[in-house]
TrEMBL record:
SUPFAM superfamilies: UDP-Glycosyltransferase/glycogen phosphorylase
Family of this protein: Belongs to the UDP-glycosyltransferase family.
Stored PANTHER family: GLUCOSYL/GLUCURONOSYL TRANSFERASES, UDP-GLUCOSE IRIDOID GLUCOSYLTRANSFERASE-LIKE
GO molecular function annotations of the record: quercetin 3-O-glucosyltransferase activity; quercetin 7-O-glucosyltransferase activity
Signal peptide range: none
Keywords for this protein: Glycosyltransferase, Transferase
Gene3D superfamilies: Glycogen Phosphorylase B (3.40.50.2000)
Protein name as it appears in the record: UDP-glucose iridoid glucosyltransferase-like
């Protein structure tokens, strides 16, 4: 930080959360990274799903009214567009007031000025407020950078560009995704896309939770089209290892259970914070795991099956088949610690982007069952571009599950996948060492902040 007349001047960054677990985690991790670089941090968040300030004693937390519950917006994963629109509409005025108040305080304490605002890409209203108040805004992407191609490549060019795309991007089948996106988009979807593109265009930069080697082709294409620089500081969780971000209580007992398992023997099963499954799918997963003979750690989050605790749906006979020691079920796990544990040899995932990065950075190969949204693109990256996972058929059936677990964990067929996963772990470590792409990108970001 700069010296002003012998006194230390520090800069404050304001970070704005989108209040769902898969977005809260990367934003708080990014806050931790930036705090370690010397910035003071203020987190502004909607009241809904407030993070726990006591986990981050060095940050200032400010809650703003969001009227989410009062607006009667559905919290189902499929209704996220309505939720995003409601938050952007309801939070604009309280956020503007809050930021104006902070800027007034700046006048009184000139040694700590607001240097910029970093916002989750779903909270795009923040960019317009930052522009209005003359502050630089940075768009934080908690998803794969490739998702940005649907925004930054002009609509008129998307079809032909995606058709003739370079070979590294072919496994993503972007043209096919474009066709499904373009089919009858609702007015709400059009509104959200236009507003979020405007935010990207006027931002001072994009901060992506990804790595250069992982999305090289997508990042080059994005940089051709985006006027804003793209900073790739991922995986955030590896640069902020001690950051605690869970809204649900983590059950640490599973770590002592993992301690007793053989190296690389356990399949970890979790479908993130929002995905839902049917009762029948739980039954098929249960029998697939039981019959696989493989030790497993299974997260059954309350609400994973709509309106249920989930565990009561486990079929009769399952526990006898599994015995007392082969399986462990929790409501919520310390996932990053689980994936870094020696005993874990595979991860059956819904392919959320955080889970994807957490798994690949530990060299853990994946079984993939995407459920909604960006998870389908992530699955294509994992299974067909990076080749560190196996796609599970969308209709879950116990015999096929059992077969897929065996292939991933033990068969000769799975060996290439397991080796490839270890190779990506090594490349991740390189990105995070001195001179590696993620650390260099962090330096570039801080340089740009100084120049602003
Ligand atoms: C969603 C989208 O699926 C994801 O692709 C997007 O980028 C963010 O929003 P979610 O479905 O929750 O997120 O999945 P994911 O991105 O994997 O995030 C889940 C987070 O919860 C991970 O950081 C994971 O470590 C954590 N988690 C999950 C736990 O801490 N414990 C658990 O038991 C399960």
């Amino acid at each position: 930080m700069e010296e002003v007349q012998g006194e230390k001047q520090s800069s404050r960054l304001v970070l704005v959360l989108y209040p769902f677990q898969g977005h809260i985690n990367p934003m708080l991790q990014l806050a931790t990274i930036l705090h370690a670089k010397g910035y003071s941090i203020t987190i502004i968040h909607p009241e809904f799903n407030s993070p726990n300030p006591s986990n981050h004693p060095h940050f200032t937390f400010i809650s703003i009214p969001d009227q989410l519950v009062e607006s009667g917006v559905s919290l189902a994963p499929g209704d996220f567009i309505d939720r995003v629109l409601a938050l952007n509409k309801n939070c604009t005025a309280p956020f503007q007031k809050c930021l104006e108040r902070m800027l007034d305080d700046d006048q009184k304490h000139p040694l700590e000025r607001i240097a910029g605002v970093v916002y989750d890409c779903f909270m795009y209203f923040v960019q317009a407020v930052a522009d209005d108040l003359g502050l630089p805004g940075f768009n934080m992407r908690p998803t794969a950078a490739a998702i940005l191609l649907f925004s930054v490549v002009p609509h008129t060019e998307q079809e032909s560009i995606f058709e003739s795309q370079i070979s590294e991007l072919q496994p993503l089948e972007l043209k096919q995704m474009l066709t499904s996106f373009s089919m009858n988009p609702s007015d709400n979807m059009k509104e959200m896309r236009a507003a979020s593109l405007n935010a990207i265009r006027s931002s001072s930069g994009i901060i992506a939770n990804t790595m250069e080697f992982l999305e090289h082709a997508a990042l080059s294409m994005i940089r051709q089209y985006s006027p804003a620089p793209v900073f790739t500081l991922g995986p955030f969780h590896k640069l902020a290892p001690s950051c605690s971000t869970s809204i649900l209580q983590e059950d640490a007992h599973c770590i002592s259970w993992l301690d007793k398992q053989a190296p690389k023997s356990v399949i970890y099963v979790s479908f993130g914070s929002m995905a839902s499954l049917s009762k029948q799918e739980i039954v098929e997963i249960a029998w697939g795991l039981a019959n696989s003979k493989q030790p497993f750690l299974w997260v059954i989050r309350p609400g994973l099956v709509h309106g249920s605790e989930g565990t009561e749906l486990i079929p009769d006979g399952f526990r006898q088949k599994v015995g007392d020691h082969r399986g462990f079920i929790v409501k919520w796990a310390p996932q990053r610690e689980v994936l870094a544990h020696d005993a874990v040899g595979g991860f059956w995932t819904h392919c959320g982007w955080n889970s994807t990065l957490e798994s690949l950075s530990e060299g853990v190969p994946m079984l993939c069952k995407p459920c909604f949204g960006d998870q389908f693109l992530n699955m294509k990256y994992i299974c067909y571009a990076w080749k560190i996972g196996i796609q599970v058929e969308s209709e879950l059936e116990r015999g096929k599950i059992q077969g897929a677990i065996k292939t991933l964990m033990a068969d000769i067929q799975g060996e290439e996948i397991r080796n490839k996963a270890m190779e990506l772990k090594r490349k991740t470590i390189l990105s995070l060492t001195e001179g590696g792409s993620s650390l260099s990108s962090l330096e570039e970001f801080t340089k740009q902040m100084l120049s602003i």
